[in-house]
Amino acid sequence: MTIFLLRRVLQSIIVILLVTVITFALLRAIPGNPAIAILGPNSFRNPAAIAQFDKQYGFDLPWYSQYWLWLRHLLAGNLGFSWKLNQSVASLLGTHLPKTIFLVGISTILALLLAIPVGVIQAVRRNKFIDHFFNGFSTVFYAMPAFLLGILLILFFAIKIPIFPPEGPQGEGLGVVFTNFNALVLPIISLTLITLALFSRYMRSSVLDNLTEDYVRTAKAKGASERRVLIRHVLRNSLIPIATLLGLSLPGIIAGALITESVFNYPGMGYLFYQAALNSDYPILLGITIVVAVATVVGSLLADIAYAVLDPRVRYVSQ
Amino acid sequence: MSLASVPPELPDPENPSVTTGLVTTYDTEIHEPDQAVEEAAALPAGKPRSTFRRGLEVFLENKLAVTGVGIFVFMLLFCFVGPLLYKTNQLTVNFANEFISPNGQHLLGTDASGFDVLGRLMVAGQISLEVGLAAAALATVMGVLWGAIAGYFGGVIDSVMMRIVDALLSIPVLFLAIVVVTLVTPTKPVLILVIALTSWLTTSRLVRGEALSLRTRDYVQAMKVMGGGSRRAVLRHIAPNAIGTIMVNATFQVADAIALIVALSYLGLGIRPPQQDWGGMLSDGIQYVNDGYWWLIFPAGVCIVLVISAPIFIGEGLRDAVEVRLQRR
User: Fold this and answer.
1) What's the predicted TM-score (pTM) here?
2) Contact between residue B199 and residue A251 where contact means Cβ atoms under 8 Å apart
3) How many whole angstroms separate alpha carbon A154 and alpha carbon A156?
4) Helix (H, G, I), strand (E, B) or coil at B149
5) Which pLDDT belongs to residue B134?
6) Is residue B24 over pLDDT 60?
7) Which pLDDT score is estimated for A31?
8) Which residue has the higher pLDDT, A116 or B14?
9) Helices A236-264/A282-310 angle, 10° precision
10) How many whole angstroms separate alpha carbon A186 and alpha carbon A263?
11) What is the ipTM of this complex?
């Protein structure tokens, strides 16, 4: 178990290092001269100033030294500086990230709470009407572009029947989310439906897989009722992969949040990323990419650890 | 889109209990003897015939899957044959004709530039379908080769190759695509390449899982004893025998690739005007959501939902067809 943990942690560190290499390569692939971009378009007349800038910020170093410098800053928590917004990426994330975590967190929990019963019902009533119904439902929401879903929700529940505001809560800080929770209902519904579509399919196949396992037959042979087999044996085992699912689907959910936040004008991390993409504000793009990637790697590490704790078979195999 | 980075069923190669989700079954099927003889007479020798036929039967029994094939074929005909039958002017802007509601002449009305919406749907669909299919094909080839090589060699090579996949997989596809598209002008070939480069990862993980078990099979060992190289092993034995997994995954790739172009178009990072794909039409259309121009929104929306749903239904039918455990229930 300890060896398994150590190996997984080591793997995760290597993966995170690889992510920084990829991100750094992208950073270097960006055309243009940072000195001119920051000092202004007329600065090319002044090579001394450019040389001074390059020297001060390390742009005169070879690429591996630049990578090392960048990595050291990254480890110190310096994610870069947005010259366009004149603010450090870390402080921008400080104001935007909590909002995304709040939105994604609530939507994921809601989606999970709905996906478990839906998936179980679908698996038990496989190829019956209710299975096809939910299958069609989840496929449509999987296939529907996130922005169309958001716009339709706004059209019906903010314009036609004005129950909710068409925009997410505005303003600095996480406090507005609580004072103006009404405005967050539509974004949450939107993201929950997308995530539910993803989770319920997974849950269905997880339950189906478990229904064919030997222990189900054993439990039935011992005289356990269908209901007991389903809840005590199948459901408990089907829930184990949920840990992995959560770890793996984090990038997908965050990408969904990007679109949802743009539609509802909700100033979270996805919205920040989108605006940065439109403004070619690369330090923000890369800073957020690193944060999301690290969160995903750590998430799947935790998921694997949880998995190893919950499922003894994993431990035996890894030894 | 945006859910593209995780397909509905994603077995984790790290834990074997999930990995067994997709199994190709050519050597484990048991057949009625007389049926096998009949089929052997009807089909050329050397093919995995009876399993194939049983798989086909399972697939055809799945009404959703057959519907999916129907929808997809219809969409292909609509986009590529449709313009030959329903001729419209998609080249010159005519503001005198803007926002005409559907009538006998313009079956789905016209848009802000005076283009006929039905004709526009056909032309835009060509781009969506071409990019989606080409990107999915390219991603599948890349993923299969990468995964088969990693799984076949195992050891250090496998570890290095899979850690690269892990690293890329932890960056949201949409994020990666956005960064790349802001670096280069998004033309059709560029979009195909960007989408393929960001979506081969799940395929490679699945194929690697298959390769890990396939490389220990007797026929691969026998071939190695006879002096076959690893190139032959990967291309002739590992990849073909993982074909079930690959096909199922490829159909999901088509759906995710189309979803990704749609999302990029909405963000203004997709194909550039004057060309347009369905995502571009839809995101243009929703600007008029308050004006009641429903024909600018719903036709494109329905096309997108249908063309993404169809491969998903097909993929699920295919999975049932290659999944022996479900067949036996």
Assistant:
1) 0.79
2) no
3) 6
4) helix
5) 93
6) no
7) 67
8) A116
9) 170
10) 11
11) 0.79
CA distance A296 to A15: 11
- Say if the Cβ atoms of A139 and B309 lie within 8 Å: yes
Q: Is residue B259 less than 8 Å (CB to CB) from chain A?
A: yes
Nearest to B163 among A18, A31, A143 (CB): A18
Per-residue pLDDT averaged across B80-99, rounded?
74
The tokens describing A118, both together, are: 């839906």
Facing residues of B14 across strands?
A: none
Cα distance between residue A198 and residue A119, in whole Å: 11
Residue numbers of B between 148 and 177 with CB closer than 8 Å to A: 163-164, 166-176
Whether A289 and B176 lie within 8 Å, measured CB to CB: yes
**Rounded distance between C-alpha atoms, residue B59 and residue B54, angstroms:** 9
- The DSSP output letter for A282 is H
Summarize the confidence of residues B270-288 as an average pLDDT: 81
How far apart are the C-alpha atoms of B45 and B36, rounded to whole Å?
12
In one-letter notation, the amino acid at residue B92 is T
Nearest CA-CA distance, residue B175 and chain A, Å: 7
Look at residue B138 and tell me whether its pLDDT is greater than 90.
yes
Chain A neighbours among B 73-132 (CB < 8 Å)? Answer: none
Calpha distance A35→A44 (Å, rounded): 9
